[in-house]
Amino acid sequence: MAYRVVVNLDKLREKPECNPQCSYPFAKPEQVTGPSFLRQLAGFEVFCRRCDDHPCVNACPFDALEQQADGKIKRFNMRCTQCNSCIVACPFGTIVPAALLYKDAMCDLCADPGRVPPLCTRTCDCGAFTWEEIADDAPAQDPSLVIVNERLAVRTKRFIKAEPVPVRKK
């Protein structure tokens, strides 16, 4: 079991203005803080459909998006100019402009894991950022939970695959 920052996307949808404090040491006062970076990671993890032909990656004229070996999309903030080509190219509409913030402070998930809960989890008044002890097999018992890595997890309603309804011929 390990302690992880858990980003609850359902609570963020209910209260989008939720912006807890961040202790990232290189953030500048005018920058959007690390929690926005965590929102972006959570969104890509949960909502990206991992298309085989990755049209969002192909549409980016600055190579700011890259599909990793596991199918996940990674965005390189320093290459992104917010041209929105990826948003237009995404066939499922899962890349939203609010998730692609140009001025974005990175998040180191607090450099000292396990000792003190990160500042974002202590100052989040809407419950969207929490510090929870989660086992690696927890998603098997909780379908709303997705483990991103050893220090980050996402909680949201899961998509249910719907089978197409047969069309009746008259």
Please render the helix and strand layout as text:
Layout lengths: L1 E7 H6 L19 H14 L7 H5 L5 E3 L5 E3 L9 H5 L29 H5 L5 E6 L3 H4 L3 E5 L2 E4 L15
Parallel strand pairs: 1-6
Antiparallel strand pairs: 1-4, 2-3, 5-6
Summed up, what is this model?
The model has no long low-confidence stretch (mean pLDDT about 80). The protein has helices spanning about 10-15, 35-45, 55-60, 85-90, 120-125, 140, and strands spanning about 1-10, 65, 75, 130-135, 145-150, 150-155. The strands form two sheets. The chain has a four-stranded mixed sheet with strand order 4-1-6-5. Strands 2-3 form a two-stranded antiparallel sheet.
Could you please describe the fold and organization of this structure?
This protein is an alpha+beta fold and 170 residues long. The chain has a domain at 1-28 and 107-170. 23% of the residues lie in helices and 16% in strands. Strands 4-1-6-5 form a four-stranded mixed β-sheet. It has a two-stranded antiparallel sheet with strand order 2-3. A hairpin with a 2-residue loop joins β5 and β6. It is globular and about 65 Å long.
